[in-house]
Amino acid sequence: MYVIGLTGGIASGKSTVARRLVEHGAVHIDADHLARVVVEPGTDALARIRETFGDEVLNADGSLNRAALGALVFGEPAALAQLNAIVHPAVRALSDELIRAAEQADPDAIVVYDVPLLVEADVAHPFDLIVVAHADEETRMRRMVDLRGMDETDAARRIGSQASAADRLAIANVVIDTDGTLAHTLAQVDALYERVRAELGRSTVRGAP
């Protein structure tokens, strides 16, 4: 098995990279999706969030009121740290389970674990490769305004709330430059996939009896 940690700032083209790897046959695990799953009604994490932040963070049906919770932790480092201490271990446990299941289904599986906050959350998975989707800030701003309908102030705030490009690039084993055309981005992802398949093949040969 081969586990790729994929990250990138907002509007960096990370989803495009993930989709292309999945088209090649990779198993996609989305950390944002897992973060929603682990706080569904009936979960231990949601119970702990309620104990920590109060009943006001729940909707009438018992589900998490994300807006109410966000209002409590936004701009409050201590409260955000409390929330992360609940959610991050639950996400880690679930992602470990999914990675093990992928390996059981196919010992040669390539898993792309899509973690937007790989730097911020200090995710400690033993990745075989960390891939960063990268575009400059001007490009990302333009995408957020033109494609997502954000105003420039909100776009700049969203970018500023995340880790810096320098921090992400510092942990990268591979950088996918998404500033250019879609074809240019996809060609880099295709080359990455071929590299990973080759490394898996060599590993299989080395591990053969």
Automatic annotation (TrEMBL):
Specify the enzyme's EC class, one word: transferase
Q: Where does ATP bind?
A: 11-16
Give a yes or no for keyword Kinase in this entry: yes
Q: Which InterPro entries match?
A: Depp_CoAkinase, P-loop_NTPase
Which keywords describe this protein according to UniProt? ATP-binding, Coenzyme A biosynthesis, Cytoplasm, Kinase, Nucleotide-binding, Transferase
Q: Can you state which reaction this protein catalyses?
A: 3'-dephospho-CoA + ATP = ADP + CoA + H(+)
What does the protein in this record do? Catalyzes the phosphorylation of the 3'-hydroxyl group of dephosphocoenzyme A to form coenzyme A.
What's the protein name? Dephospho-CoA kinase
Give the organism, scientific name.
Cryobacterium tagatosivorans
